Amino acid sequence: SRAGFTGPENLSRVNLVLVKHYSQTLYTLYIRSVYHNLSKEAEIKRINKELANIRSKFKGDKALDGYSKKKYVCKLLFIFLLGHDIDFGHMEAVNLLSSNKYTEKQIGYLFISVLVNSNSELIRLINNAIKNDLSSRNPTFMCLALHCIANVGSREMAEAFAGEIPRILVAGDTMDSVKQSAALCLLRLYKASPDLVLMGEWTSRVVHLLNDQHMGVVTAAISLITCLSSKNPDEFKTCVSLAVSRLSRIVSSASTDLQDYTYYFVPAPWLSCKLLRLLQCYPPPEDGAVKGRLVECLETILNKAQEPPKSKKVQHSNAKNAILFEAISLIIHYDSEPNLLVRACNQLGQFLQHRETNLRYLALESMCTLASSEFSHEAVKTHIETVINALKTERDVSVRQRAADLLYAMCDRSNAKQIVAEMLSYLETADYSIREEMVLKVAILAEKYAVDYSWYVDTILNLIRIAGDYVSEEVWYRVIQIVINRDDVQGYAAKTVFEALQAPACHENMVKVGGYILGEFGNLIAGDPRSSPLVQFNLLHSKFHLCSVPTRALLLSAYIKFINLFPETKATIQEVLRSDSQIRNSDVELQQRAVEYLKLSSIASTDVLATVLEEMPPFPERESSILAKLKKKKGPGAVSVELEDGKERGELNGGADRGGEAAIAASNSTPSPSSDLLGLRSAAPVGGPAPSAGSLLVDVFSEAGSAPPSAASEDPAPPLFVCKNNGVLFENQLLQIGIKSEYRQNLGRMYLFYGNKTSVQFVSFTTTVSCPGELQSHILKCIPSLTHTKPVEPLVEGGAQVQQVINIECLTDFVDAPLLNIKFRYGGALQNITLKLPVTINKFFQPTEMAAADFFQRWKQLSQPQQEAQKIFKASHGMDTEVLKAKLLGLGTALLENVDPNPENYVCAGVIQTKIQQVGCLLRLEPNAQAQVAPPPPPTHTHTHTHLCAHALDSHTASVCPSLCGSHCITHCTHLHVITRYCIYVKDPHRVGSSKSH
Amino acid sequence: MQLKQIRFILIQNRAGKTRLAKWYMQFDDDEKQKLIEEVHAVVTVRDAKHTNFVEFRNFKIIYRRYAGLYFCICVDVTDNNLAYLEGIHNFVEVLNEYFHNVCELDLVFNFYKVYTVVDEMFLAGEIRETSQTKVLKQLLMLQSLE
User: Fold this and answer.
1) Which of A360, A620, A675, B47 is the most exposed place for a label (fewest CB within 10 A)?
2) According to the annotation, is A781 in a ligand binding site?
3) What was the pLDDT predicted at A117?
4) What percent of chain A has pLDDT over 90?
5) Chain A positions in Cβ-Cβ contact with residue B92 (cut-off 8 Å)
6) Half-sphere exposure for A246 (CA within 13 Å, toward CB)
7) For A259, nearest residue in chain B (alpha carbons)
């Protein structure tokens, strides 16, 4: 390279010259501290002295001239850049802005760009100075001002200049360099405050900057156009043909045509890349001529890659290949030209063996996306040997990582065995940083392409053997699910895991799988005297003392299963359970299991035992939870992620109802829709101690405490929130959303707290609230407003929490809850979460107290069928008086005590407040423990006028029901009967609550 | 499609001293300091046989070493590596021409000029001007105003 930096070893030689060359003060400040080996303390002392000096100059009686002011502000900046805090000089810097001298102005602007934060009080003064410079018609000053805006980019600046800058950008007499700055300045403002940059007459003229004679203007403007196009593709679609013709002119030009813009014999490499990037905002051009021209360009770019280089310099090949890779990205983006895709693949294939590490890396990366195209998948596969070789021999771990990603991407049924074998052998020496991801990938490929499941079982057991520490729960849960669901592999699995357990040191995960599988299918290998029941038991038990509590718990469950499978082991196992180390174990969980299992084995008849400890029924098929986990991990190998939910033990051993629900669903082997919430849910029973049909084990799940609330994107508003206003609305691995809300009359205010659970920032974090379907703004107004001045903090730092306030006004009744959409980028992947906000009609209840006589008189008045809604539903977990009361109060109504003659019943009264009407509601809840209530015919709503009210109540009762059912008891077969009667008062603007509509 | 842009530009010496830091996203001061340290740690351990790209948090660093100085550009993972790698070199060539064989101390004492060079070539996280001739002409014009 031509550029030669003098290394530190030469510094002393250069110093002599520098003494004269550089300002004496800067020199002494710096050189003294660095080269006279001043201690940190001495340096700080020296700096403080200097700061005091500057401060006194600024405060002195004598007004400083521009030159001195500049000198001291510059010194302050220098001190700041050396890493010291500066807390004065801002005003002097602002003063410099109005100087007529370039150098003074420049130092002033630089100080402000580096040191003034956007909410400074000085912003008005600064904006004033900028305004003057923008209208000065002096291109140098205009550029300084524009650069300052682009560097600071605050909202105040956007408010002040978002209107002016487009005018400067498209004005006919603006200088080229000013246009360049204006374009990028506008881009910065648009990204920071899109609401303030209004599209207008200038937009079409901006597109035509693609035709500008000055390549620098095109280079700058195209970044703006790309951003605008990606947000408003239709408005800017004329840019496609302009971009194609511009690209075509560059690509077909000779290497010297573009003079200033030729870089190492490559014409306008950066502009070419930007043009190709812009085209990736759009589908292939529809116009045949444009498309033909573009294909020609792409072919030319591919051809040039084959031509002998015009220079041996790496700069030449890099610039050329920068264009090539961008062209390949476009080809992949279109994914419609088989010919180009295959050519791209062949070109990348050549790079795979290039001597430049950079090119090998990029080829692996780019090929990864090619592998997913049906047109090029086969072509990619032909490079398998090279890629495997890269995995084994590359020195740079990030290159090996790309090779592993590519192997994963190119895997299909035809090469799965080879690829999985290679990945497994790589795992033995793989870098720790990538092992977990490799394990997940192997597990997924093994499952996805397993033709015979014995191969799958072998692979997973190998995984545990080689990288047991990195095998997450999802992986071993999955192998168990699959073994249970496929009886053709059960015997093999039992045999293999039995053999694997023979190893003197085997990983705890192996013990878990072994315990589970032998507990279920140990009988399939018990015929062989080498693996007789007692041998199996002794083998498992020999590992027991080395294992953690959860594994021991699992082993205890395996033992009780053994008693059922092999009565001959009963005495031995009972002996073990009875031992003090079990039955008096200090761990409650282990102790409880030991006690219960011991009791169960001694009192239950063989039949009961056989029923309780029956073989696990098949799991409902669903997407592999491992895949979900991999998707969550970052990395180009992982596909883009829709938000997945749930994670580890907390989720798996969730609340009582959840564990019970999953266990019951499993034992009936009818996956009920209610249990079908999460991919992971199915794993819940596996995670626990083999819960069979009996409810005995169900309560084992219940000890884990309350589950974190979860919400898949399709979930309705969590029923939890019908009766309460605060809590955790959503949680996954990345994000937790807490909610706090308060309601008064027909108004509500909701505080949302978005917590970033990771250590990495979320980028482009935006939230929108929308009202679906019928629920339009005239029914329910949800106005998100932020406590910050910024509309939405686009960044959420790792571990940080952002707060948002939503104001809600209920205009009339409604059914659907408003939707909250959250988008952000994490690890390059777009996260998109849609949740229902827990706004239900009952939030606008106002409790009404009334006496018994009053209540029944009104109750009787509301006797028309359309004034009544009835609902009978099962309390799936039974009824607890206090819980029910709490729920009814949470509903927002007043709970009227001593009103109903039947003390079992509950009556409530309340008025739903909306802007245009009030709905009075009387509610009666009749629990029926006998469960013999025949459901009455569903209430018919043949109403015309009352439709909105019925609607409201329907949704209201409907939403009440699940929350009433949510109580966590285990009794079944009780029914709740809810009758609600209501009347509507239409609000008169003058006399509220006056006239009754029926 | 995802919007890509430069997140920050750093010039550091081998000892980790920052010679230029240009931020194109909002970071608070602590975060900046953390980033500076992390980038230094990530980049200095790599040898010449390694790629000029290294994954960094959710981004990647495109870097090139010139004598004792590391020039680093942080971009989105899907952005064009080689374009930025040559963007760095183009920038260094301009510095070299402007300072007549640039050395580390040029960047220290002429920091305010370096900022001007950066703003001429990169603005708002985008490449603004790539022609060395045009940039140098502009810089000389500005110099004449001093």
Assistant:
1) B47
2) no
3) 67
4) 45
5) 1, 3
6) 28
7) B131
B80/A270 Cα distance (integer angstroms)? 10
Q: Are A326 and A273 contacting, i.e. CB atoms less than 8 angstroms apart?
A: yes
Searching chain A, which residue's CA lies closest to the CA of residue B53?
A358
Instruction: Sort out which chain A residues have CB atoms less than 8 A from B115's CB and list them.
Output: 110, 113-114
Distances (CA, A) of B24 to A46, A185, A799, A836, B122: 32, 12, 22, 35, 10
Tokens of residue B133, six digits:
């001739």
Q: B48 in contact with A at a CB cutoff of 8 Å? A: no
Compute the half-sphere exposure of residue A270: CA atoms within 13 Å on the CB side of its CA. 32
Across the interface, whether the CB atoms of B50 and A396 are under 8 A apart is answered yes
A239: chain B residues, CB-CB within 8 Å: none
Total beta-carbon pairs less than 8 A apart between chain A and chain B: 212
Of A850, A860, A843, A646, nearest to A747 by C-alpha is A843
pLDDT digits (tens, 9 = 90+) for A313-342: 999 999 999 999 999 999 999 999 999 999
A705 DSSP assignment: -
CA distance A742 to A739: 10
* ipTM value > 0.95: yes
Inform me whether the C-beta atom of residue B87 falls under 8 Å from chain A C-beta atoms.
yes
- CB distance from B104 to chain A under 8 Å? yes
Closest CA to A438 of A424, A456, A449: A424
Sign of the Cα pseudo-torsion (A385, A391, A393, A398, in order): positive
Higher per-residue confidence, A221 vs A34: A221
CA distance B42 to A306: 35
List the single residue in B with minimal CA-CA distance to A830. Answer: B2
Identity at A691, one-letter amino acid code: P
For the stretch A101-127, pLDDT in tens is 999 999 999 999 998 765 567 888 999
CA distance A986 to A994: 7
